[in-house]
Design a protein that fits this description.
Helix content is about 50%, strand content about 20%. The chain has about 525 residues and is an alpha/beta fold. The chain folds into 4 domains: about 210 residues, DhaL domain (Serine Threonine Protein Phosphatase 5, Tetratricopeptide repeat, Alpha Horseshoe), CATH 1.25.40.340; about 60 residues, Alpha-Beta Plaits (2-Layer Sandwich), CATH 3.30.70.120; about 120 residues, 3-Layer(aba) Sandwich (Rossmann fold); about 100 residues, Hypothetical Protein Tm841, Chain: A,domain 3, CATH 3.30.1180.
Length: about 525
Amino acid sequence: MVFTSHDIKSAFVRFDELITTYRSALNGLNVYPVPDGDTGSNMSGTIKRVMVELDGTESMREVTDAIAHGSLMGAKGNSGILLSVILSGMAETFSNHHSVDVPEFTEGLARASDSAYKAVATPVEGTILSVIRETAEEAEENGHSSLAELAGAVFRRSVEALARTPEALPVLKQAQVVDAGGAGLVLLFAALAEAAAVNPVDLPHDLLTAEAHLDQIDSSSAVSELRYEVMYFLDSTDEAMETFRDRWAKLGDSIAIVGGKGTWNCHIHTDEIGPAIEAGIAAGTPSDIRITDLTERPGVLETDDVFLPRDEASVAPLGVVTVANGHGLVAVFRDLGVQGVVRGGQSMNPSTEDLLAAVEDVPAKEVILLPNNKNIVPVAEQIDQVSTKTVRVVPTRSVPQGITAMLGYTTASDDIEETAETMAAAASSVMVGEVTSAVRNARVDDLVISKGDWIGLADGSIVVNGPDVEAVLRGLVAELMPPANPEIVTLYTGLDAPLSATKSLEAYLSELHPEVELVVIPGGQPTYPYLISVE
């Protein structure tokens, strides 16, 4: 028995099935480096992209190129990136052969292990790194006579290595769980062992589904207490990446950088979003920038699992799934009757898989989707084609639009077409704005913007900028005010919203527009201190 390209594709079909089955369980294991509950989701998203790229491939070169490229482009989060580099290491080794036997499999594991350790700035034992290293050692140290024997031994060694992760990483021992990323890797070796032996293996179900005891974790054991996760793709040269790595090493931890041939997938935990992005601009061209506030991830379960809709919403015949980030914004949507929430928004766009999973998880058979960002609208419009449910998209381009759209919905609504039209009409009736800061110098039309300036955007276009956030906020609201009969200005304050600017806006409206009601809602969103709607 040797692995042909067909066998490897079959193994990945099985791996995808296993990751999907254990996705929520892996999220529940996730306590290191922060208990953000997304390991299963990130690993699943990585493999979903691989499966898309594998479609239609035949030769070993086509299959391995699809695995390497798909995993690189689909990787999200620390776990997704490390899985990507492991898969790429194996794929690059296999690509040079027509089939894979004991020597090639052994070489692939060694390359995957070396690559994984090099991908992180500070390797930590008791993680997925330990599991890949021990499996590579198993292959090299023991004389396995057949691929089936080797794949079976590697799987068993991966389970043993996983079971030992709490001994190497105190936070796992305190939480009484194994490493989530390592658990996901065990599923890969289970799929490969089954493909080699054409028989199912006994999965360590108890290890994979253990319940994390977060209340037992000593806060001093947490390695990363930094606030934000920053990820982006970076087009750059090998030479520029050396300087980039040095700059990032000074900005945070949990750094993982994988890729090559001009394209890199970069991940860091940091308190300094601007410098982390600026380092990418200095090294090349960053794209698909995703910023996650790690303090906004409640517990060890993914957002879909911890979000509890109102009782009447949970039995509504027509459901709504919305994209939002920030405890306050999520609470507003919950009060308005949504059934599901996907974390995301500005600078953190969810994938097709994220949106599909949320739609499939809600009870209703017909679902309206609120993307709340112009970049997410095209992704959202694909969901109806791949979902088992009827899905309609109300193409909201901001969170304030999404909240206003909910005014056209009630939990008694049962006509999806009519309700979607009503919600779209409501969304279009509101003027929306955002305040954020500039990460570099720029010129937009007649505006000269300096790095660090506050910028005000009306419907996505920059209309005001300057160093004074109070002045920018007042100027943006003035731009948003309709010419006649404005009634309500709603201000959703973000994590970094200065109280002085909020008070300044109150005084401004009280003096110039006493007829306008100002509603201030703590949104808790990252990156954008203020989101505004005027109606």
